[in-house]
Amino acid sequence: MRTLNRPRVLVWAPTLYESGFKQHHVDGEALALQASLERAGYDSTLLDAYYRGRPAKTLHTALTEPAAGIDIVVAHLFTTDAYGTRLHAIADELRAARIEHGVRVVGFGPLAVSAAAELHAHGAVDHVAGTGERAEDDQLAPLLAHLDQHLREHTPLTDLRTADLPYSAGAVVSVAGSRGCRSRCTFCAYNADLPGGGWYELPMDAVLADIACLHHTIGATQFAFTDSDFGGTPDRCHERAVALRDGIRALGLAGIITFAISVRPETLTPDTIRVLADAGVRTALVGIESLNPNTLHRLYGKRQDLTHLNKVVVAADTAGIVIVGSYILWHPWQTLTALRAEVEAIDAFGRFRIPQFMARSVLRVVPGTVIERQVRAAGLLDEAPFHREFRMAHPAVHALYADLQAWFTENAQPVIAGLHEDQHDAFRQLSVLKAEEWCWFTQQVTDRCEEPARA
Ligand code: SF4
C-alpha cells in the first residue's frame, strides 16, 4: 500500500544497446528496483524499454499520460557498453523530462555512477545513487537512502504484481545472486556503484524462490545471473554451485531451467564446473581479455592464470558448458608483433569461443577507471562529454585497425543491422561473417608483419 507522503516514482529501464539483436532479455535489476520501491510504500511503475519483445512507450509518452502524475524518474543504467552515443541519447531524454515534465531524475547503476559528472553537467539527473551524494529535498533524500540500501540487500521478486511482468515464456530473465567483484581490472566500472567495493553474496535460497516465481508466472525457463562474478572465491563458488544445483532439484525444476553465469575462471575448478552443469548452467561468460600475459597483467590488471583458464575450458567442454569469452584486442599500445602473437594464441584457444567481431574487440574507455587515467596521462585520449576514445601509439597498428573498421562497415554492418535472434538463421549468418572477418584480418596481420622484412 502506498505511504501517503511518498512520491510517485517511474522506474525506467531504457534500451541500452543500439543493436536490436537481443529481443527477449529482461532487466531483472529493474524488476528488483520496482519490487523494492513497492515494498517501501512508493507508488512505483516500471517502464521497461530494455525488453524488445513488445513495443514500449517512450519516456516522454509515459510522463505525458494524464494519470501518470510522476514525481521522480529512477533511470536504471547498468551496462557500461552503453557509454557513448547511446548514453548521450538517454541523457537527452532525461533532460527533456526534467524540463518539460518537471520530474526529478535519479540515475542508478554502475553506468550512472561512472558517468555521473557528465549526466549532471548535461542536466540529465538531479542525483546519482551510490555516489554518496546527499539531497536536501524531503522526497529525494529518503529515496536516495533507500536506493543505497537496496544495493546491499536482496529484494524478493515474489511480490511483484502480474502487471509488472508483461513478458512471454521466451524471455531471458536476469537475476542477481551476488554483487561486486573481488578483482580490480583497470578498465572496469562495474564496481562503481558499490561504495567500498568488494564482493558479497545474496542468499541463494531467496534468489531461487524468485526464479521459481518468475518461471511459474511467465513461464520463463532461461535465466542469466547478472552477477559480475558468480563465485567470488573458489570455495564460495563451489558452495554456491552446490546450493544452486540442490535448490533447483528441490524445486522440481532440474532439467527445466537453464542458466548463464558471469564468472572469473580463477574461481572455477573441474569439480565446480560439473556441479554447475548439473545445476543447469549452459553458458559461462568469462573475461579472457588478453592471451598476452603482459597485456593481461600489466595493462588490464587481471590476475588470471592462462594455464588455469585452459583447464577450465577443457572441463567446461566436457561438462557441456559453453565458455563465452570477452576479449580486448585493440588497445593504445598494441604492436604488430604482439598482435600476430595474440592472433596465433586466439587461433589455438578457439576463435569460436570469442563471440565478438575482431573489429569490436576494442578497449572501451569509460570515465572513472584506472585505464582512463593511464591513457590520458599518455596523451592518447580524445575526450568530450559522453565520449572517450583512445588513439594508438603505433601508426602501423592504427592503419590496420582503420582498415579492419572499414571492412566491418562495408561487409558486416549492413547484415547485422537487419538481424535479430528470432530469425532462424541469424546465428549462422553471424558465424559466417565472423569467419570471413577472421580470414581477412589474419591474412592482413601476416602480410603487414612480413612487409618490413621484404622491404
Ligand atoms: S573480473 Fe570482470 S567484473 Fe571483475 S573487475 Fe574484472 S572486468 Fe570487472
Topology, number of strands: 15
Q: Which blocks of ≥5 consecutive residues have pLDDT under 50?
A: none
* Helix share bin: 40-55%
- Strand fraction equals 15-25%
Q: Which ligands occur here?
A: iron/sulfur cluster
What's the number of domains? 2
Folded structure, characterized:
The protein is of the alpha/beta class. The protein has two domains: 8-150, 3-Layer(aba) Sandwich (Rossmann fold), CATH 3.40.50; 162-454, pyruvate-formate lyase- activating enzyme (Alpha-Beta Horseshoe), CATH 3.80.30.20. The chain is 43% helix and 15% strand. It has 15 helices and 15 strands. The strands form four sheets. Strands 2-7-10-11-12-13 form a six-stranded parallel beta sheet. Strands 3-1-4-5-6 form a five-stranded parallel beta sheet, sandwiched between helices. Strands 8-9 form a two-stranded antiparallel ribbon. Helix 8 packs parallel to helix 9 (270-279) and helix 12 (336-349) packs antiparallel against helix 15. The longest helix has 29 residues, at 426-454. The model has no long low-confidence stretch (mean pLDDT 92). It binds iron/sulfur cluster (SF4). Iron/sulfur cluster (SF4) binds next to loops.
